[in-house]
Design brief:
Layout: H1 8-63, H2 68-79, E1 94-95, E2 102-103
Antiparallel strand pairs: 1-2
The structure holds zinc ion.
Residues 96, 98-99, 101, 110, 112-113, 115 line the site of zinc ion.
């Protein structure tokens, strides 16, 4: 029998693999888009917060003698409160004055016995 190099059964395997490959790409594309869509509210939230920070800094620098250098130094000071210069202000959990357990700042109260610190800054609730 002459070998033409064409094997119909093998072609069907390749076609099947090709379909799977293309289906995988389509799924990746679909997942990417759904991730982008899910991120949109977060991106818009960050953009609003950025605008708020810019407006606050514009007012502060106009009304005071504080400079851009003062702002940069304060950012570094807050950043380093946890000992790591990572452009984030990670605040460690605080100790509950009533039971001694850690109070997660995200929840703003002791999850064991409900102690609610009164004098927390507005930034603690974000
Ligand atoms: Zn407690």
């Amino acid at each position: 029998m002459l070998n033409s190099g064409f094997n119909p059964k093998q072609s069907l395997v390749y076609a099947d693999q090709w379909e799977n490959y293309v289906a995988g790409l389509v799924n990746q594309e679909r997942n990417l888009h759904s991730t982008d869509r899910a991120m949109l509210p977060l991106v818009e939230h960050v953009e609003r917060l950025t605008l708020l920070c810019e407006a606050m800094w514009a007012l502060i620098s106009e009304k005071t003698n504080l400079s851009q250098d003062d702002l940069s130094k304060k950012m570094t000071e807050l950043d380093l409160e946890d000992g790591v210069l990572d452009h984030k202000h990670n605040k460690p959990p605080m100790d509950c004055p009533e039971c001694g357990n850690k109070i997660c700042r995200k929840f703003g109260r002791c999850l064991f016995f409900g102690y609610n610190p009164e004098n927390t800054s507005a930034f603690e609730t974000i």
